[in-house]
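Q: Could you fold this chain for me?
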Amino acid sequence: MDHALETANERRQEAATRLIHCYEELAKRNENLLQRVVGNQTFEHWGRYPSPDHVDEHSGFQYYYHAHSPDDRPGVRENGHFHTFARLDHKARPVQDWFMPATDNVPQVCEQDDTTVHLVAISVDAHGLPFEIFTVNQWVTGDRWCTGESIASLAQAFRVDRAGPRLVADWLASFFTLYETEIRDLIDARDQRIRRLIAANGQDHRITQDHSIEVLSAAALSFAADVDAALRGSCRVA
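A: Sure. Below is the predicted structure, expressed as structure tokens.
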């Protein structure tokens, strides 16, 4: 077996084991992951949990959890989703910006925040089990608009060991490791979608402010099967 592949499989095995331990620990406490995220706060649709967001001052990464209202997404399986970010004001990292047309006379929902880069969002069900990952358009969170190469590099380093509940931090770090390949493919699909939109609408079209485009790429997950495949040291065949 190729050494790099063997190393990647070992990382996935370790991540799968840590994820199982997270859920076992939650079960012992008769809790689910979302209870650990929300804590003692009253849960409301569109709220951010925790509030303020958890920011790891050492690693320079950030996350929060929230849920849309049932009217906004009728009939969906999702309870809510995690948004994950890199904070460039806490830890300097090289990033490459994606070209943005001038904003003259173009109404914006929020100004671009040059200090944060949105990585990926993780959808979970009511039991706190992940079932989808997705990327969003720039207007959704208002972050720095970077190339997929930069985002993939940041995602690979994602850790929040010093932010929020330990169990949630462990869960997020293990998730990013288990799904490293899927996250990279998701970000690549994001870039391909952006290129298609530019080709269809022209360089001057403000894709980042096009409210008809919220999600740029999405990928379904089969969590139980993915964990099982990782523990067996192989990549699951869909």
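A (continued): The chain has a mean pLDDT of 87.
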